[in-house]
Amino acid sequence: MTLWMPDDIYFMRNALYLARTGLARTGPNPSVGCVIVKGGRVIARARTADGGRPHAETQALAIAGERAEGSTIYVTLEPCSHHGQTPPCVKAVIAAKPARVVIGMSDPDTRVSGRGIQALRDAGIEVVCGVLEDEVREVLAGYIMYRTENRPFVTLKIASTMDGKIATASGESQWITGELARRYGHLERSRHDMIAVGIGTVLGDNPRLSARIEGVQNDPVRLVFDAELLIPQDSELVLSADQTPTWVVCGDDVDSEKAEWLLSTSVDILKYPLNDKGIVALSTLLPELVQRGIQTMMVEGGRLLITEFLKAGICDRILWFRAPCIIGDTGFSGVADLEVERLVDKMDFVHNERRKLGNDILDVYTR
Predict the structure, then answer these.
(1) Residues with catalytic roles
(2) What does the angle CA 43 – CA 46 – CA 51 come to, to the nearest 5 degrees?
(3) Cα–chain-centroid distance for residue 189?
């Protein structure tokens, strides 16, 4: 059994940091971090480039050049071993003649899984796999979900009062949480490939759904669930569709004239047959989204859309922001009727994290 060296965790954390900086920027490829170390010093580092190419390993090896011989290469994901749009990274790694390769996790892609590791070992290179694997899996959650379930990793975001209300009886909701919580929400947006909302949120709030954080220039794709194509032509989303990708999911029998007009404004229309509840089946839509390069999506509302995801069992993480205030029974709850009549049918989650954001609290849950 190959043992970890004392520095392996430290340098893998360096590679993980690089991978995190590429979240929602490298699709359709995963954001991978690579650090090359020789004599205890970092001689090269890189992450997957925006757009997915070049890969992290080939960039770092180009920086290291001949110095890579005899080095230790730290990479968060097993080097690819298949021919895609670029040659396999494992060949470049072998050609560089490192002494060791330390890998965060094996690739769930069936074209690669274990083959890259075996190729390195067959070349006489020491390979250590599984260093900080839990943290690597967290960073690569979208990619893993894509490869194993053929759908994006789905996060539901709710901002409510202490008693779970997201709006007053009149529908007023801006703002329940404070500025720091809202800024953290914008940071989370920047880490996702897509932000999804229902048409009710668009009609009620006219949101931009952008990541308004200083120094962050990554705005996710915006998706609106709008069965009847009610999105206003002067909405913020339509007016900015030529700058930020904006997709609208609607029924296949909507007003063709309005659909054509929206297409002319750069809005992408995704038509689907609707079920008996007048909504698109998520099991049909989500596989198409990953084929379009969407590996992580955050559903921000409204409550009916969030409820549909919960009913479908499609919820990998919940970000629940709570403000220290109470509205009472007349307010709108963050989750609509789930038709749970017995406690045995309740939806259970694991509480993973709690953060204090100013006067508000963020709780993070996973399934």
Answers:
(1) 57
(2) 165
(3) 9
